Amino acid sequence: MKVLIVSTLVYGLVQSATLMLTALGFSLTFGLSGVANFAHGGLYLLSGFLAWGLVNRLGFTFPLAAAATVLLVALLGAAVYRLVLRPVRGIVLSEVISTFALGVALVEGFRWRGFTTYDFSLPPLWPGEVEIAGVSLDMQRLGIVGAGLVLPLALWAFTHHTRVGLALRGMAQDESTALAMGIDSDWAATLSLSLGAALSAVAAVLLLPLGIISINTGYEVLLVALAVTVLGGLESTAGMMLGSLLIGFAVVITGNFVGPHLSEVVYLGALVLVLGLKPSGLLGRSKEIEERV
Amino acid sequence: MRTSGVLAAVCALIVAGASAAAEGDLTLGVPTALGTIEGQDSLRSAQLAAQEINAAGGVEVGGKKRRLEIVSIDTREAEAGIPVFDALAAMEKLIAEKKPVAIVVGAFRSEVLLSAMDMIAKVKIPYLCTIGMSPDFEKKIAGDYEKYKYNFRLGLSAPYLVGNLGRMLEFVKKKHGADKVYFVHQDVAWAKGTVGGLSKAMAAGGWKVVGSDAYPTGARDFSPSLTKAKAAAAQVLVPVFDMPESGVLVKQVRSMKLPALVAGFISPAAPATAWATFSGEIDGLVNFLFEPGSIPLATPRSQHFTDAYAKAYGEATRAKLSGHGPGPSYDAVFVLADAIRRAGNTQAEAVVAALEKTDAEGAIGKIVFNKTHQVIYGEDPKQAAVSLAFQWRAGKRRLVYPESVAEGALELPGK
What domain range includes position B73? Predict the structure, then answer.
């Protein structure tokens, strides 16, 4: 029983960090620019195949390939804003449709090109295992927990204590005032899309080495990101973190003490329950503000 | 005016010519999950068989040689969130538009297969499936033969998989003294059926079943089962999965240091390329190939299929052949062509009667259908079709089951 409890704590943290990393890019982009980037899953998948290609076709070491992937996908994120989103900026439905179409095109493009075999596997960034009170944990998962703690803190520091971060937040809070203060709206949105894309690539190079890269991951990642972000509160990164912890532990507790087949029911049930009680999500305030207005 | 009249006449002649050519061909439909490796490999195998038959002049029907044409549609049924009726709609579209004389390969998911049988009962064309494994396939035919007699299965069924896994694990019990088993499986019909049957059989055979967990398709964390299996001192872990995400399980077994023999079916661990994919982390893992194909039998027909596949699609593609679907899909086209030849026409009733009398050598062993239209699987390829189990050892897939084709004995981890 002791081992099961320790395992629940350890793998609950891993699961929470996994969800957090999966959703971070989506949440950040929405929080900073108000754009719901539905190409998030497609960019995640692209990052996985890009890193695989750099390692297996161009001979990069995996750490170098991972860094290059994050950089390239960040640039792609900026290009997505300039080429796809800028023409429809401000028309929410068009933004959703165009990013969703891009995501589907990426995922189905890989399927069409035959990336459906079981060959696509990335090595771990941190090989080896550790023992925590009788429970074995691989270093890659430990690294994921570390990244799940460090990245949100680093992003919080960036958005609260740097000029660029403050400018992005200003734009997110009140675009007209931010424009009056000389902040370029397009520049801010480009940067937030780029940052979100980079974070999807970070998640890919950290999480995909746990298994093999499969096409459907592109859709699953988007659904997870949406669920976690909506649960926490769309515009709240802290809410997203809280949502990740809630779902992560709910899934592992269900798996360990009830049965893994019910884990998805529990996670979707938690989503329905929270939204029923608090429509803006755990830490979101959009609905309350709307009602007050 | 005159010119346009001539052009119209020429076009009409071309169209008429094309129609005449199309009428001469026998169309076989392949509605399956083409986004899966099993679906793609099965389609390629069926196309290879059709090419070989066409190269030999085609199928003789009532004294005339007719070429085979394969038409396919992606049912997407293996993707999360695609409901059964979407897959059936794709199949219905293919049947309505292309009017195939028969279906080969067919449904990927058992849930789709069982529903497809009802559609086939209405359109009345032979349906030779090679992937869906549910035991209810045979139950439906046994329950209403007249309605479901058009359905045949060449791929392995869940009951045969249960028998084969059970016999192989019995060997582990006798030789190595293991008697504690833990099951982990995908929460889908064929895997549930397999584990349900195997669990009962093994418990009756003196095994202690220390746990059994189902995971939804797409699951990526198997720590609950591995923690409990370790705590219960399970000596054998039996995984039954056909989803790519089960690759996580392969790696997690190693990282959580489970000191148990892993013996079952994990689709990503089946191809010859899996050793490189998993960087050798699958050493000692025992995996089933539901049918020969990825590893051929030492029979001329089986060897021919593997060589011809490599020649047609390249050795790299052959090395990635999946463990379920290709061999029976290749055989299905030959079996059907032979039945049409013997029937002398493409009328479903006549072809079904001829299919029931099939007695042929195929890539999967000897092909004979039982009364409920399932190809009989056994332990000797000279007497029946066979499925194979191999153990990963030092980068090679060494056959360990059945005894008639085994290259060595199964070894426990650490040996």
Answer: 3-156+297-375
